[in-house]
Amino acid sequence: MDSRLRHFYEHIGAVQAEVWSEVYFAGKFVLWLLVEFISRRMDQLNFPISSLEVARGMTSEVVKLCKPGSGNLAYTGWLRRFRATGK
Question: For the chain, which residues make up each domain, given as ranges?
Answer without folding.
Answer: 3-82
